[in-house]
Amino acid sequence: MERIYNFSAGPAVLPQEVLEQARDEMLNWQGCGMSVMEMSHRGKEFMGIAAQAEADLRELMAIPANYKVLFLQGGASTQFAMVPMNLLRGKKSADYVNTGEWSKKAIKEAKKFGAVNVVASSEDANFSYAPTQDKWKLDSDAAYVHYTPNETIGGVEFNWIPETSGVPLVADMSSNILSRVIDVSKFGLIYAGAQKNIGPAGLTIVIVRDDLIGETIAGTPSMMDYKIHAENESMYNTPPTYGIYMAGLVFRWLKHNGGLVKMEANNVAKAKLLYDCLDASNFYHCPTAKENRSRMNVPFTLKDAALDEAFLKEAKARGLVQLKGHRSVGGMRASIYNAMPIDGVKALVALMNDFEKSHG
Ligand code: PMP
After folding, report:
1. Whose CA is nearest to atom 9 of ligand 1?
2. pLDDT score of 2 more than 90
3. What is the pTM of this model?
4. Same fold, 16-256 and 258-359
């Protein structure tokens, strides 16, 4: 059976080579006679898999030694609560930037634990841009500053890292982690659900500067305490073993394919193909501000929403799936994460051009 081009926002396309390796190792991982799914998380085989995955991620992102890498569960949504529980550290409030649906959810959750100052928002323009830093009203006494570098639904991405003058910067990188080179030392904490650029759903990655952990608010459950996870090397309880294994294969794949420098160049090229097509047309419309267009999630609408169904049908006939926009936005959304080959984007552009000719 042919593989299709899957433009889902997540769970999303994985590299074919990774799936093939997982298939080949499914019944008998490297001669040990069992699947990774069947291994004890404390056995030497799995401990080796987890250690290698962490080492490869550290190398790929050049994560400094004073940062912990945690392999957790609960999705990015659990981080919306764990961040304030762990990082408020006796402070009264935290600063949040509101650039869309995911920021809003993070803000809503943080309000359960302390005061939240929304220091900048793009709600005035339907979350179509990222407010520049001169518009932010940062509080120098805030516990941390939280933002969403890539809003998966709105398709808005920051192409710069905020400067917070020593206040720890926290980023929900769920939908753009590993897609570009970033300087981890500029962040206090980075978190991401795995199901877009890392691996299967169920694994959540947290990268946190070690001096920020260990001072949770009263009543924080053990499972929500970064320090406990760090001290137990993410094995305080049974970790999502298969997800860690798959993430490790993806990290290997990234290393073999030029690392994040090459990924970023690929992603720039893929996004350019799509945005150039959108800009050249009066039939399609992209709602996001040019300077904040996401390289990962590209929302667009057709001139007439009544044509959406026909577009999706034609896409499906060509093996292009999951292009329907988020229910809150409508239209289309093409998610083009690391594992989406450039040929997939070319196929989408060809469809868009043909569809415009026949329906424009
Ligand atoms: N933040 C962002 C930016 C996301 O895209 C998502 C998932 N689409 C989430 C948070 C929520 O992640 P999860 O489903 O892993 O809780």
Report:
1. 76
2. no
3. 0.98
4. no
